[in-house]
Write a structure and sequence with these properties.
Two copies of one chain form a homodimer. The first copy, chain A, is of the alpha/beta class. The first copy, chain A, has helices spanning 10-23, 35-40, 51-55, 70-80, 95-98, 143-155, 165-193, 204-209, 217-226, 228-250, 256-274, 291-301, 331-340; strands at 2-6, 26-30, 46-48, 60-63, 86-89, 106-111, 132-136, 159-162, 278-286, 308-313, 319-327, 345-351. At the A-B interface, helix 7, helix 8, helix 9, helix 10 and helix 11 of A face helix 7, helix 8, helix 9, helix 10 and helix 11 of B.
Chain lengths: 352, 352
């Protein structure tokens, strides 16, 4: 099996490592910036300086270059790839890439992995273990080549899931790209509101909501641009929803029903994900080294998994609140364990 | 010292406990719903059924009823309070409460504490330790009474901070109320986009951004209404910012500068808070009981404090990414410790 990896960063490098170690594939890499390091790290067997040599006789080609370079490189790869070579990409938006590329060899792809770092130095063979890898085949896609790609991804540890490109982009726009835009808007508003004021008591809701604000500017500006259409629609939807809230406020309407609907919607979205409802526990703790360990150890020893966790220090950093999400059936036991440690704790009735 | 607490829930009950234990105050409580439980818990010395008996000879009155009942109860309290009694409230919006109440005895207040639970059963004497307690005096406020309230709050463990009511509401609207609205909007958008689709791979950015979606509907609809004006302005600002992004996307403008500005703004907002820059570490970990404990223990033993933490499981819940924020000067050491545990980890160059 010969695999060509075009663009050997975190994703491309991890594809190479996994393909080598799990499939015994021969991996060729093309990347003027990192091919040498990729060779040193064992991510590829061979560094090629041109696409034609990398693609010669290849069974599969994975194009993992930055999104702004993707369309051009993808066309170059399709131009030199053999008849029997499946070609995929790893871009985070699919509509613009897939439309107009009705090539039987091409399947758009998007692995949901690797957000924690960038660069081939962080590549690892197990990056895709258990990760969803979206594929966006079209009616032009060759069934044989699609199946080969699917098997390749399974062998890399991923879980391929087919989706049409429109739905993929719409989903990513709302669950990933819009949150990033809103985080930026929020810090912009706060920076404006606080101009000249004393440092604010930034609460946990602000910290959580802005955690991704300003993430990796070159990467994210490329992602916004690549998913321009679907993100634009998501923005229109968000603007309309905010205007509605604005009107309701002005009219003095009660927003309790709206708030309750949001609780149900979030619960439904996250329940699907974990296969069951979660309960949020909130514990007040002194903010010192070791406290999180005490909490996590107590639950861990009892076999209770912490599905999600957020720690919010108080303003002066002496006290804090830890929010923990655990399975509903384990909530009572978890509350008891936290209480035994001497920390005030309560379960937040409603969910996740 | 006689303190009257009107509304004995989490906040009122904690005021009572702290005033009794730390000041030896005699605390009278008025609350048809919870005065009996408050007596049992030792939050008050005496349960009164009418305001006049509670306020007789009182040195200070703390009105801690739900925001929608606040204006009426506050006026009732001011009507029966003595000339020499300082009266304060704990509402989360101040402009509407303070305007038109030019009474020398009244000082608007807002403690930033108690978000983790509700009800007198969760009241505790140390709830306010280290917590900012905003006070919004006006030119009508008596200096002597303001000073008495200030000393009382310090004795309760809080850190009083004076702010004008307009600035208070503007700040709370942007750092607290707007994040809640945006979280609701985000889950609404996602619920719409996903209608009929398979469960999405909800990413960590979505989880973080929607953590407070649908929080306590009766409480939060009251908070939105109470801070209607300032929240309306914050919404206008957010809508304008989103439209700008929408236009930039349509025009094909590069959003990298905008993204980078958000990174600087968030860093500035959070640096102020911790007195120094933080570095985000991201570690890939198996999602099983004990992992968070291992991480937190390793850092805790080395004396490294985790300022903030977020845990995002992967789609199938077998693997996850832990984000940790630590002081810049401790980041290298922290990375080494996490790596020693066998978890891939990287520091996210830029900050917080």
């Amino acid at each position: 099996l010969i695999v060509a990896v075009v663009g050997v960063g975190l994703i491309g490098g991890s594809v190479g490592m996994a393909a080598r170690s799990r499939l015994g594939a021969h991996v060729r890499g093309v990347d003027p910036g990192s091919a040498t390091r990729a060779l040193e790290r064992g991510a590829i067997d061979e560094a090629c300086t041109d696409l034609a040599s990398a693609l010669r006789g290849a069974d599969a080609a994975v194009v993992a270059v930055p999104v702004d370079a993707l369309p051009g490189v993808l066309d170059d790869v399709l131009a030199v790839a053999g008849e029997d070579c499946v070609v995929t990409d790893v871009g985070s938006a699919k509509r613009a890439i897939v439309n107009g590329r009705d090539d039987p060899r091409f399947v758009g792809g998007h692995p949901l992995a690797g957000a924690e770092a960038a660069g081939v130095e962080h590549a690892r063979a197990d990056l895709f273990d258990g990760a969803t890898w979206y594929l966006t085949p079209t009616r032009a896609t060759s069934g044989v080549l699609y199946e080969r790609l699917h098997r390749l991804l399974v062998a890399l540890g991923a879980r391929p899931a087919a989706l049409d490109a429109e739905a993929h982009d719409r989903i990513m726009a709302t669950v990933s790209h819009l949150p990033h835009v809103l985080a930026n808007v929020l810090v912009g508003q706060a920076a404006g509101a606080l101009a000249g004021e004393a440092p604010p008591a930034v609460g946990p809701s602000f910290r959580d909501a802005t955690r991704v604000a300003g993430a990796n500017p070159p990467l994210w500006s490329g992602i916004y641009a690549a998913n321009r259409d679907a993100l634009g629609e998501a923005l229109d939807g968000a603007i309309a929803a905010l205007r509605q809230v604005r009107e309701d406020l002005r009219a003095g309407s009660d927003l309790a029903d709206w708030q309750a609907r949001a609780a149900r919607e979030r619960a439904a979205l996250l329940e699907d994900r974990f296969g069951g409802p979660l309960v949020e526990l909130r514990a007040a703790v002194p903010n010192r080294p070791g406290v999180v360990a005490d909490l996590a150890l107590a639950l861990g020893r009892a076999g209770i998994n912490i599905s999600d966790m957020a720690l919010a220090p108080s303003v002066d950093n002496t006290q804090g609140v830890v929010a923990l999400w655990v399975k509903e059936g384990e909530a009572t036991r978890a509350v008891g364990l936290v209480r035994d440690l001497g920390f005030p704790v309560s379960a937040q009735g409603a969910v996740a």
